[in-house]
């Protein structure tokens, strides 16, 4: 049924880069056979899922939205993919994304944009716009995203779906193509809080193949999602996330959510987090710096594209020509920014200062969580903007992640879930819930109470 739905609508939505029809049917048949034999089935047996094209899949193309990896077929599965298969999930295919997960609109994909199912002329968010659009258009009930600065939560917010960035280190990064390794985190996308929790439990867990993987039990997120409640909780409203640049309808729906939390028995207080105003600047030094290092491996020799190799050129020239042809503008912009921020003589002033800001933000979260159980804010300052509107204005594009980035810098957990439609444009608004590291279950407890 989901493959038929993809056939019917994906020409318009363009959520998928690759539909693995045969693989999906084979996985579904294998589940049926297991069931017929009376074998124990995985927790998500037979449930279809759309996978962001940033995870390596054995024998199935993985492009990361880039020409650089066009035609590359990985020889191994990412740990997350192995975990999905162990849960008996049926993987429908790979979803569209901004190239190397850099963007907030999916317009930076080398394979063309994805439409927002609420209004196909608008962006579905990014970088994981394909995953959120696949869920919102009923092409898949579950999807996987990755969140470096907001790429799970911002697409969830603008498509009226649920997305969770788990605590950093909760979901293995092995086989997840690296953008900014200290920030990148895979996580679940779904239409309900409970669905997201079921997927969260299936993908999380310690992995010795990822040196930053957390060796701690997965928080009881499914139990929390089944027992939504905020009674007796202390909830903090982040003072910084409103005012100039915030759409009136977004603020209105957020304020209504706060009233709802109060009416359900939460004590709500305002929390002042002044260093959050510096988060975007710090992020746009740290993320490009790490990206400039991570993307050095795309040298035209090891994987995917090789340009200008006519037998007369040096390896160095082939690498330069390949990188010129293979990377899009935004990726090049970040490599240049990051290389500059890391260069000797500038390192302390740029990268070093950004790391200090990161520490201050982390401490501010710690201080806040001494007073409150969770923090809340709008997920994004505005609803989905029209395709093309911010494409030539990187600063305007970067502002889409104003509310989501501090969480990545500190490494704690956050969720976006729908909280109504903005009256002025009828488009979905996201409520963001932020929890301390390793307390991901609080997101689900609160989310299930207000969903
Ligand atoms: N939009 C942010 C960026 O462009 C975040 C991307 C992400 O989370 N992958 O870097």
From TrEMBL:
It holds the Pfam family Amidase. GO terms for molecular function: ATP binding; glutaminyl-tRNA synthase (glutamine-hydrolyzing) activity; transferase activity. Its EC number is 6.3.5.7. InterPro entries: Amidase, Amidase_CS, Amidase_dom, AS_sf, GatA. Keywords: ATP-binding, Ligase, Nucleotide-binding, Protein biosynthesis, Transferase. Allows the formation of correctly charged Gln-tRNA(Gln) through the transamidation of misacylated Glu-tRNA(Gln) in organisms which lack glutaminyl-tRNA synthetase. The reaction takes place in the presence of glutamine and ATP through an activated gamma-phospho-Glu-tRNA(Gln). Belongs to the amidase family. GatA subfamily. HAMAP family: GatA. This is Glutamyl-tRNA(Gln) amidotransferase subunit A. It comes from Streptomyces laurentii.
